[in-house]
Specification:
seven-stranded mixed β-sheet, six-stranded mixed β-sheet, alpha/beta
Amino acid sequence: MKYGFVKVAAAVPAVKVADVEYNVQEMEKLISLADSQQVEIVCFPELSLTGYTCQDLFKEQLLLNKAEEGLIRLLEFTRQLDVICVVGLPVQAGGLLLNCAVVVQGGSILGVVAKTYLPNYNEFYEKRWFASAQDLNPTQIYLAGTPVRLSAEPQLFQTTDGVKFGVEICEDVWAPIPPSNLLTMAGADIVLNCSASDELIGKHQYLRSLLAQQSARTLSGYVYASCGFGESTQDVVYGGNAMIFENGKLLAEGDRFSFQPQLQTAQIDVERLHTERQTNTTFINAQRGAHAQVVACKPVGNEHPFQLTRPVDAHPFIPNNHNMAETCEEILNIQTAGLAKRLIHTNCQHVVIGISGGLDSTLALLVCVRTFDKLGYNRKGIVGITMPGFGTTDRTHDNATSLMQSLGISQMEISISKAVTQHFLDIGHDATKHDATYENSQARERTQILMDLANKLNALVVGTGDLSELALGWATYNGDHMSMYGVNAGIPKTLIQYLINYIAMIPAFSAQRDTLIDVIHTPISPELTPADAEGNIQQKTEDLVGPYELHDFFLYYFLRYGFRPAKIFMLAQAAFGEAYDKETIKKWLTTFCRRFFSQQFKRSCLPDGPKVGSISLSPRGDWRMPSDASSALWLKECEEL
């Protein structure tokens, strides 16, 4: 394991019913392939050594003996390999015959897990041949010449990296209380399911949903391998399902009804799962008193260079295309509901909002319009104010005024140039020196105008700042940093563009469509320094603090999972490919870490605003951090990248 990733595999070998020698040969091929791909744990189907559909042949001693001989052969085959294999075979324990999964590594048996829930309906009559683990008194048997302890007690296997996994068998996961519940409560990070599930109309979709939910509910990785082509088709057909999940997300899926053997691999991020569990108090409470026998796996003999094989989404905040409209509508509804409650609570039917013609203020204005429409308030109660200053360009100014006019809100324009120039004289600042004082004086003047007008109009100041700006501290303290309710506080910059585009495509906003599209394509800028000679925006935010798509990526993995810079750096390289070279990613990751720590004081006194996704920087909710915390550890690791 490196960077918290464990590579696992679901194997579906070719099989001949009751032909153990053939089955072992086919399993050896997939084990060899798995080992060559640096797979750490591979799961085979239920009763994979004999075939699942042997029926009354399971009563034949010859088949049972050959199954044990097949296991001995697999032990010998794996003697020089590191990969951990979970294989299925019938195991005799005194007067009981058990449907078991055997965990094998480096020529040794690490443990044996017996199936708990045996189907006895329709075409499945396992109770005709097998006993349940619940029928088993703790006992020791000799299997393949190895003393093995058998019991119904939950059993975990722990690798030398500290990763714990457990095993359940087919029907177990369909039970009201699956063994995987107990295993994960006792600490299993990954559950392996050796299965044999036949195909029926609609069953596969239900199975996928079941496994996804079980993986999500137990905050675990889940590897499912079910028998396929070669099993008896006397009454049913087996499709060869191979699926791997992580916390409800499908990472890999095989080709059902394939006539060829399959090995589906994926990297499960155990570190990510640990973070989820540590922050989920429901999971923490549920695992109280849970216990299991823990078996240590063997040390790995060969360390292989790490290579990330799972895809990494470069824009984790952006919904997928197939649910883009639904997600955007839900986000806007959250923002609308938040603002509506605040207006009703304060008995207020007026809002004041600064309109710059940029992304953030445009989205905030659209949220105000939706809120007023939903509450039945007159849009004239929305007072939009343009406050041109030293850096305002015609493009943003025209977009701002066009939006306000077409949306039918109240409109005001108050230039801040004279007031700020007087302020420079009052404090003795050289107006030709375009430093922080020059910029922040403008932001604070605008905020003063908004606040004072809100008092005059008995209105509420709606903030426009977004989540990305809060993370970087890209706001003037007690300037645009402050408002009476911040509707964009939970939305990152990269997502705002999609929300505005979604609204632009709604027929009700067709009159604003062209303006909204132009806003999306306008360079992001606070417009606090003068434009260039042609009147174009000269001060571009992303030139100063870095690309927002990178910062949003860093923010997501830093805040959502607590990943260290080295892991975020590795993931960013995989996500963005050749779009940014290593030095560029390192530069802006260092900037992110430095600014995130140094700007916490601004987040410690944020106005109220609605949480929208899984990440929030509210000091009252998701993120509580000392304003004077040291960034030394993070910056040192950035330097060493």
